[in-house]
Amino acid sequence: MLKPILLVEDDPNDLELTLVALERSQLANDVIVVRDGAEALDYLFRRNAHAGRADGNPAVLLLDLKLPKVDGLQVLGAIRSAEELRSIPVVMLTSSREEPDLSRAYQLGVNAYVVKPVEFKEFVGAISDLGIFWAVLNEPPPGSVRSVRRPNS
């Protein structure tokens, strides 16, 4: 069974575009959607409404920077501070081109920082490439076994 992709996005338009782009990339991974940083942490740490979710971490976390309740940098910091979560690949998917955001994200250990393209076709291409790389092509660290399905196989 493939690990899910965790998508943390509060903007309804960006959420819909990202889901369309992931669908077009033909990944078999389920996509779990949460709408704020607090819910993302609840999902990852298996608490509150997500206490009963299945064991295991997502294949990749697509994380918006500007989120309600707990922002993306705080979520990233919590992930990198937790032994059981720190190996999750995290892609900051944001509209912010501000250098302090970029610098802080890399200081906290983000795997990639992607500024959301404005044009729909470019956005779909960027999300598709991200999904394929992190959910299919990237080799996870030793000890985190996953099954692999190549696109169009």
What would you note in describing this structure?
With 153 residues, the protein is of the alpha/beta class. The protein has a single domain, classed as Response regulator (Rossmann fold, 3-Layer(aba) Sandwich). It has five helices and five strands, in the order E-H-E-H-E-H-E-H-E-H. It has helices at 12-24, 37-44, 72-81, 99-107, 120-137, and strands at 5-8, 31-34, 60-63, 90-94, 112-115. The protein has a five-stranded parallel β-sheet with strand order 2-1-3-4-5, with helices on both faces. Helix 4 (99-107) links the parallel strand 4 (90-94) and strand 5 (112-115). Helix 1 (12-24) packs across helix 5 and helix 2 packs parallel to helix 3. The two termini are 16 Å apart.
Quick structural overview:
The chain has 153 residues and is α/β, with parallel strands linked by helices.
